[in-house]
Design a protein that fits this description.
about 300 residues; alpha/beta; Rossmann fold; 2 domains; six-stranded parallel β-sheet; 6 strands; about 10% strand; nucleotide-binding
Length: about 300
């Protein structure tokens, strides 16, 4: 494939590390637009609990895939990949550089590398696993995955029953680890991806997360979740920041306990994000306090 002069600058890192601020700086510097690869920020009904960019931030640079869907619409990573690639193609006609930002590893990889292809497996497997989840709980499924595919056990969102069941379904149906189908023949991309990772020491990340959750509460997270009560069974709402408040609203938990759980679950999420993003050996990691100018000059060097 000939050398391309089109670039996608992908900004990754754990939640609350400062990706949004950096993406806006870079978009303004390169006079370009931003594609969001944060799977929770697609939904217009969820803005406080997903820490979506604020109105002010959205005004500073043009964003795509923020609040563009409703929680009632079926949307998945395959659909996102198609839409994002179409969007990129059109943006690359007028800009050599486009910025992508987001903490959803699977969605980031779908755009930069393409999705993995999995074998067809027996349709009866998934209902059996769903039944097992109902009767025996998630932990037995997690342990089963740990035995069949330790790699996936350590890298997927292990607290997400859908992800665990999907991985197990492939392991059982194909007789091969789910992870063995990852990163096979990907679609070649007509652009080059440069990945910038933001990181900090764990105590700093955790402190930033705890503070961010407190800000969400001050900004009215409980009221936001109240409006979503009729939809609480939807998969998109089975997520950190929402499921905990549902437990408070139905009097299962106190508000203080719910907030502490959001903080704890967000910290766990950040840990998994780092595990996922650290797998890419080509990522250029910067401390979250690195001056934006330093990052820009590094990017200039690579592009030119």
């Amino acid at each position: 494939m000939k050398h391309t002069n089109k670039y996608l600058i992908s900004i990754v890192g754990p939640t609350a590390i400062g990706k949004t601020a950096l993406s806006i700086k870079l978009a303004n510097y390169f006079n370009t637009e931003i594609i969001s690869a944060d799977s929770r920020q697609f939904f217009k009904e969820m803005s406080i609990g997903t820490a979506a960019p604020t109105t002010e931030e959205l005004a500073q640079a043009k964003h795509h895939f923020i609040h563009n869907k409703s929680i009632t619409e079926a949307y998945n990573v395959g659909a996102f990949e198609k839409e994002a690639i179409t969007c990129l193609k059109s943006l690359h006609q007028s800009n050599d550089v486009v910025i992508m930002v987001g903490g959803s590893g699977l969605y980031v990889d779908a755009v930069s590398k393409g999705l993995d292809y999995f074998p067809e497996v027996d349709k009866a497997i998934r209902p059996q696993l769903n039944k097992q989840l109902e009767t025996e709980g998630l932990e037995t499924l997690q342990l089963q995955l740990k035995t069949l595919d330790p790699t996936s056990y350590n890298t997927i969102a292990i607290d997400n029953p859908q992800r665990v069941i999907r991985a197990l379904e492939i392991c059982i149906g194909s007789g091969q680890p789910y992870s063995s189908f990852l990163n096979k023949d990907k679609n070649k991309r007509p652009f080059k991806t440069i990945t910038i990772g933001l990181e900090a020491d764990r105590p700093i990340i955790y402190d930033r997360i705890n503070k961010r959750v407190n800000i969400m509460m001050d900004n009215g997270l409980v009221d936001e979740v109240k409006t979503l009560l009729p939809f609480k069974e939807l998969n998109s709402l089975n997520t950190v920041g929402y499921k905990e408040i549902f437990n408070y609203l139905d009097n299962t938990w106190t508000l203080d306990f719910a907030v502490a759980e959001i903080q704890k679950n967000s910290r766990r999420f950040a840990k998994r994000q780092l595990t996922w993003f650290k797998r890419n050996p080509e990522t250029l990691w910067f401390d979250y306090l690195t001056p934006k100018e330093t990052i820009i000059s590094k990017l200039e060097t690579i592009i030119n």
